[in-house]
């Protein structure tokens, strides 16, 4: 007979589970907490709070910005209000995980994130299909059929996409920060994508007391469903049989479901590029047939627990739902719980832990992250979607289910994808009316409209896990465009809450899900597109993180020649054998246009493959280049307008400088020279000694292996982009730098001084020479600075600032304006996302043969590991069989020992009885003698 008792240990109440006559060691004690629901729940006075408004919208004439057309219009704005925030237009910048990684305060590490990976459980899919076939009506009554059906499949992730998502997630606002503003996961999103109900009973995740578990009302109605106690008995049985003294999900499924498994574990997942939905899948088909008879082994489970016949189905359903036994048993009776609220609180809390961790990869946050996958799949093109009619289920996330349906993205591609969302796609899940209209919350609407009303209100989300109380702010007005409202400045949260007492937690939940408030909601029409106010655009520009802004490394830079149109341009073009230069005089405009177009085309092509931020050094006051011999030398020391940008370089041959002849310029002519140089990060100028005192970074290696290992998974840690640009495989040939010459230089050796070639220059042009010298010095300094920055680890870049000041001083001596270069260098130090872009582009340049070879190596290693794993499983099976044999022998020996002990006891009892028998015989002999004597006496008397 099962026994349930309450007892206290150190002022803590415990539920003890045991059997009558069982050893004390088999008793299991579970910590009991005060219930928030049920007959024994605490009685609280739920007074009205200030979290509710009589009207949750406002209308005003505002100047609005249309992102699609990039124009401002004056119109009436429909705004969503909040009761938790106060008006605040401060422009304090938000801090994201991406910012913390750039600043060195956080690091992903080299390991794959431990959160969010799928786990295969033998028998779960078969058991779930059986439960869905038997209990569809009960699950529908509890409003969880869609959510349970959605758990029938595998939901996988693209690691790079999840990393990018976490880096753009803001824990202070519980929203994703993208260039157009904020987006987030709403309660309505969870209902639409995951099939989770919003309205319902408070989700009370605690162990009940023995009084509640076994008690009954006055009418003999149990306080809790009978199935609840059977769940605890099953838990005790598994716990006592476990060598590790714990109960896992695998143990739980194996205990309850005894049918033959039909589904095998899917093969190891390999992330790779796919062009469409995979043809095969190891997931269930989603077809739920008729219920079948249970096997004798499964029926024996119910018999061993003493489950009554009329509650077998309820107990089986509760066992499947048993995240918490109390709630599971109530849902198995058709009770509807508010699941979306605690699930979203758990998601917000888990993302807060990840984005606040110094090492997110090793963060042990546990939350239902597959709903995040479902959200990404609905708002972004991140999964291959199945046909809408494939599954009869209201949870839309089933369309992206499958172990191969996640699209592959590099880290930069994932970053671009998340930032590419447009306002027109934000309201794809929102409800609407043919015409804009008011809905009053009188609590009598359909389930959909009641849930939608709750989703539009600001509130605090709560989650209770035993003695842990979690509170997260829910602010739908921060992402109002997802409900077709206009987006305005959200303001600042009045009160920061993270936890509270049980009474406070329940009060916040009741306020969040309260209906019949008589409040008015304006519902936009179907055709409404969420716009933003002008004030919001200006506020977001000042408040948004630099990491989520438009001007990042992931943005394709414009051609550096675009701003130089119509000016005298010196271009450096790439050839197969040498690096040559051409000068386009102002008079040769037609040819200049052709050269400009050609180089612009090449620059655009290079920007796609290898985007970089061009470094520029424009002069604030352009000065002329004097070419008259009569002009004093001193007057030629004037600043030149120089633009240093990046293009492409040759792989072979020495570097030569070729300049065409230039006509003599009048002393009053003013020429602005725009210089476009080749990829400075790839040029290997021989400038050893200029920055000898900088820290040695030659040991900054291992990037090649790191890059190879991160090819598919991606990581923000790894080689510097300029290190990759200088890989030995590029085979760049370094050579001496030669001054520009008016004659064609030799390809084998530097030009020799000799008889001057005919020239149109009538005098020794000191101004041009000084100008060219400045240009060359600027290019050398610029190249060397980039080389040093590229070879320096991210965490040591700030230590270079004092040494860079020395270089800037040299620029000053040359009368060159270095402020733009300094700005770009500081931007590089503060924003290393250029590295991510470079690594992604280098990954895309890998040949197909290299990729296939590396994938083949990985598959080979995986196969070897799987064989070793199978061998270990075989050995473990043999060990288990050996242990079972040893246990059988031990039982037999114990039986033999018991038999021998019984025989010994019988023998000992026999030995004790022998002396007694001798005494009886002696007494009988004496009696006989006495009788003989009496007989003799009688005869003598006769």
Automatic annotation (TrEMBL):
InterPro entries per record: AminoTfrase-like_pln_mobile
Source species: Rhododendron simsii
N-terminal signal peptide: none
Region named Disordered: 267-289, 582-672
Segments forming domain Aminotransferase-like plant mobile: 144-541
Protein's name in the database: Aminotransferase-like plant mobile domain-containing protein
Ranges annotated as biased composition (Basic and acidic residues): 591-605, 663-672
Recorded coiled-coil stretches: 855-889
A Pfam match: PMD
Keywords attached to this entry: Coiled coil
Superkingdom of the organism of origin: Eukaryota
């Amino acid at each position: 007979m099962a026994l349930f008792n309450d007892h206290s240990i150190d002022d803590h109440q415990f539920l003890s589970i045991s059997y009558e006559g069982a050893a004390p060691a088999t008793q299991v004690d579970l910590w009991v907490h005060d219930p928030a629901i049920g007959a024994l729940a605490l009685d609280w006075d739920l007074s009205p709070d200030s979290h509710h408004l009589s009207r949750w919208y406002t209308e005003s004439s505002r100047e609005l910005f249309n992102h699609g057309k990039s124009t401002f219009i004056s119109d009436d704005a429909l705004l969503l209000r909040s009761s938790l925030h106060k008006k605040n237009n401060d422009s304090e910048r938000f801090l994201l995980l991406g910012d913390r990684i750039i600043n060195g305060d956080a690091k992903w590490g080299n390991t794959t994130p431990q959160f969010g990976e799928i786990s295969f459980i033998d028998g779960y899919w078969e058991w779930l299909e059986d439960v869905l076939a038997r209990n569809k009506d009960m699950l529908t009554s509890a409003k969880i059929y869609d959510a349970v059906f959605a758990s029938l499949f595998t939901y996988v992730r693209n690691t790079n996409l999840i990393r990018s998502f976490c880096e753009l997630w803001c824990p202070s606002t519980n929203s994703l920060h993208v260039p157009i503003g904020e987006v987030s996961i709403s309660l309505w999103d969870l209902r639409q994508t995951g099939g989770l109900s919003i309205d319902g009973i408070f989700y009370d995740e605690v162990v009940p007391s023995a009084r509640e578990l076994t008690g009954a009302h006055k009418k003999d109605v149990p306080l809790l469903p009978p199935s609840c106690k059977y769940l605890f008995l099953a838990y005790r049985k598994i716990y006592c049989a476990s060598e590790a003294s714990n109960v896992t999900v695998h143990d739980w499924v194996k205990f309850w479901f005894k049918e033959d498994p039909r589904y095998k574990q899917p093969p190891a997942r390999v992330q790779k590029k796919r062009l469409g939905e995979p043809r095969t899948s190891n997931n269930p088909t989603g077809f739920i047939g008729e219920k079948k008879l249970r096997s004798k082994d499964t029926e024996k489970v119910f018999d061993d627990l003493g489950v009554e016949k009329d509650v077998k189905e309820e107990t089986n359903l509760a066992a499947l739902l048993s995240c918490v036994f109390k709630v599971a048993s109530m849902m198995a009776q058709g009770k509807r719980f508010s699941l979306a609220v605690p699930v979203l609180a758990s998601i917000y809390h888990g993302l807060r832990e990840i984005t606040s961790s110094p090492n997110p990869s090793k963060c042990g946050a546990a939350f239902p992250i597959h709903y995040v996958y479902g959200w990404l799949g609905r708002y972004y093109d991140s999964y291959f979607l199945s046909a809408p009619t494939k599954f009869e289920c209201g949870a839309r996330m089933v369309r992206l289910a499958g172990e191969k349906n996640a699209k592959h993205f590099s880290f930069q591609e994932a970053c671009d994808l998340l930032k590419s969302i447009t306002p027109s796609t934000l309201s794809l899940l929102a409800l609407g009316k043919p015409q804009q209209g008011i809905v009053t919350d009188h609590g009598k609407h359909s389930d959909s409209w009641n849930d939608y009303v709750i989703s539009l209100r600001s509130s605090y989300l709560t989650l209770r896990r035993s003695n842990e109380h979690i509170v997260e702010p829910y602010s739908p007005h921060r992402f109002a465009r997802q409900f077709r409202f206009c987006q305005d400045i959200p303001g600042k949260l009045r009160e920061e809450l993270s936890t509270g007492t049980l009474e406070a937690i329940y009060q916040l939940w009741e306020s969040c899900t309260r209906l019949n408030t008589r409040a008015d909601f304006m519902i936009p029409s179907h055709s409404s597109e969420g716009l933003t106010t002008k004030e919001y655009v200006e506020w977001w520009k000042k408040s948004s993180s630099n990491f989520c802004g438009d001007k990042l490394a992931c943005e394709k830079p414009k051609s550096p020649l675009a701003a130089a149109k119509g000016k005298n341009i010196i271009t450096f073009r790439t050839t197969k054998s040498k690096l040559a230069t051409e000068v386009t005089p102002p008079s040769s405009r037609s040819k200049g246009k052709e050269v400009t177009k050609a180089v612009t085309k090449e620059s655009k092509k290079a920007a796609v493959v290898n985007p970089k931020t061009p470094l520029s050094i424009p002069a604030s006051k352009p000065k002329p280049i004097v070419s008259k011999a009569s002009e004093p030398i001193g007057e030629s020391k004037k600043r030149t307008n120089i633009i240093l940008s990046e293009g492409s370089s040759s792989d072979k041959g020495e570097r030569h400088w070729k300049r065409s002849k230039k006509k003599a310029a009048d002393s009053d002519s003013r020429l602005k020279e725009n210089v476009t140089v080749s990829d400075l990060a790839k040029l290997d100028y021989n400038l050893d000694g200029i920055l000898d005192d900088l820290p040695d970074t030659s040991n900054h290696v291992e990037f090649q292996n790191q890059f190879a290992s991160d090819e598919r998974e991606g990581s923000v840690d790894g080689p510097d982009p300029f290190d990759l640009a200088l890989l030995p495989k590029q085979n760049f040939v370094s050579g001496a730098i030669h001054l520009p010459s008016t004659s064609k230089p030799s390809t084998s050796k530097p030009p020799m001084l000799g008889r001057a070639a005919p020239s149109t220059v009538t005098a020794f042009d000191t101004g041009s020479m000084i100008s060219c010298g400045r240009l060359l010095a600027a290019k050398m300094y610029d190249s060397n600075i980039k080389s040093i920055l590229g070879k320096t680890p991210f965490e040591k870049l700030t230590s270079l600032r004092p040494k860079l000041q020395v270089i800037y001083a040299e620029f000053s001596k040359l009368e060159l304006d270095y402020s733009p270069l300094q700005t770009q260098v500081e931007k590089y130090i503060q924003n290393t996302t250029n590295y991510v872009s470079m690594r992604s582009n280098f990954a895309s340049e890998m040949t197909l043969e290299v990729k296939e070879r590396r994938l083949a190596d990985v598959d080979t290693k995986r196969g070897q590991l799987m064989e070793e794993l199978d061998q270990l499983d075989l050995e473990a099976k043999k060990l288990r069989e050996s242990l079972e044999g040893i246990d059988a022998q031990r039982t037999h020996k114990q039986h033999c020992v018991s038999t021998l002990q019984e025989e010994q006891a019988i023998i000992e009892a026999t030995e004790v009885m022998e002396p007694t028998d001798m005494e009886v015989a002696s007494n009988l002999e004496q009696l006989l003698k006495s009788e003989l004597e009496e007989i003799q006496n009688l005869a003598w008397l006769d």
